[in-house]
Amino acid sequence: MNWHKLVSKEYASRSFLTEVFNQLLVFALYFIALYLSSWVSNHLETVAQSSAIYLPAGVKLAFFVILPVRFWPMLWIASRLYASYLSVYYNGGWSFDLFHGFFQELTYMTIVYSFKKSRWPPKVTSNSGALSLILLAVISASFKWFLFSSAFEFTTWLKGKQVLQYQLNMTLGDLTGTLLVAPALLLLSQSYSRMFSRHHAVILLSLFALAFIYIVSYLNHSDLYPLLRLCSLLPVIWFSYKFGIKGAIASALVSNVLIVAQAGLTQDATNTYISQLFILANSVTGLLIGTATNELKIKNNQLQASNEKLTALLEKNKQLAKRMVTVQENERKYLSQELHDELGQNLTALKTDLTVLSIAQRNNENALVEGLKENAKAMYDSVYQIMHHLRPRELDELGLEQALKEGRFKSLLSKASIKYIAEINLNSAISDEHQTAVYRICQEAVTNCIKHSTATELRLRLTAHEQYIRLTIMDNGKTKITQHESGGYGISFIEERVIALGGTYTITKIDGFKIEAYFDI
């Protein structure tokens, strides 16, 4: 029992130390990210104390979205510590106030938390998540500056329209910095385990080539910069289509970084504001097209996987149907043979005995004997019909071509006063399975024509090549009863035979009844 307690205490101690290490690591990473992003933003100031592209806003939003809530207090402490560092840097005095802007920060956290727990949390792997990220960036930046920049500390030196202009400048700066940095950090956090795949190497090489073209073009012809900036959206669209969200965010980041670099070099307010619009356009377009392409590829992969499963299932069903038909034919063949060998021979012997008996009693007509002869003949005919239905012996004895031309079909149709025309063109041998299927389909068509049609002519055309078999059966009659009244078993039987061998069929009822079956060998 004591041993279990010691293990539990050791495990708890390790978990506590791990959590402390993670908290300190988050603190350090966030502080460094704030420092680097602030350093870059300070070099982009075209208006004093008003950064045109405020990158720390993007770093802040990304860290709050990526990290669980338990790390948020550490992010708050790191931000206050960095604010103290800035106080030393700008004012020369240390001033650490943990609760300065507490309600502002609490409101910011509430907004981010509500988005994270909503139906569409901010992320870069789906279109809804990208829209949520853009909306969160707009709301957080607008709420921050429109609510708090009207405080007395700003209104003491900004009047009227100056306050509104300041609010718009700071909001646009936060929004630009957020959409420039946050998507890249979110993508990095979600795919860090697969950073060095071959797919990513292709993206990086393409981006290096793109950056090289931009830089060389700008250095040789700086007057082409407005055109290069205008064309920066085209690579974003292409990378989004080609590589999905990863290519979209990476290409937008490269294009935007080059725009930011040029804005920092020129230090021109008008040029910087225009650059803001291009950065926003590149980021938003890359997010939306990239996520849409990503979702489309995922759906296509799911659809392809479903198609493969359905194809495998269909092939399995075909094999089962083929096996079922084979077993059915073998069983019918066996029953037909048994009927022929046993019952057929006995009936033949009975008919012979009755004939002999009738001759022996020729002088004394016996109605009972005559009745027995008629019954024996009817029984023999019935058994013959059943044997033929179970397994057409003429198919085994005559072969398919002669069975179709001169066999039972011709005699049955002749008795029904229906003209029969058979056109057989066999350029290649037909397997036993296909011969049986063709014969059975013809058998069903002939039966339906005699029983359910007013036809006076039936035409059969069979063509066989090495690649395919085509069977066409058509009559010129009208159906006497509907398929519903007849049960529709004949069509179902034909469909079963065709599908079992992987074929296709069509049935039309224009100017008669027409069946077309096609088997791809």
Tell me what the structure shows:
The structure is a single chain. The strands form 2 sheets. The chain has a 5-stranded mixed beta sheet, covered by helices on one side. It contains 18 helices and 7 strands. Helix 7 (161-190) crosses helix 11. It is of the alpha+beta class. It starts with a helix and ends with a strand. The protein is elongated. A hairpin with a 3-residue loop joins strand 4 (457-464) and strand 5 (468-475).
Give a short summary of the structure.
This protein is of the alpha+beta class. It has helices at 2-42, 55-66, 72-91, 102-116, 127-148, 152-155, 161-190, 198-220, 225-231, 233-266, 269-360, 367-390, 393-398, 400-406, 408-415, 432-452, 483-486, 489-500; strands at 45-47, 50-51, 419-426, 457-464, 468-475, 504-508, 513-520.
Number of strands: 7
Cα separation of the termini: 75 Å
Helix content: over 70%
Strand order of the largest sheet: 3-4-5-7-6
SSE string, helix = H, strand = E? HEEHHHHHHHHHHHHHHEHEEHHEE
From the spread of the alpha carbons, the general shape counts as elongated
Unreliable spans are none
The major pleated sheet works out as: 5 strands, mixed
Q: Over all CA atoms, what is the radius of gyration?
A: 43 Å
Overall SS class? alpha+beta
- Give the amount of beta strand, in percent: 5-15%
Look at the structure and give the mean pLDDT.
76
Number of helices: 18
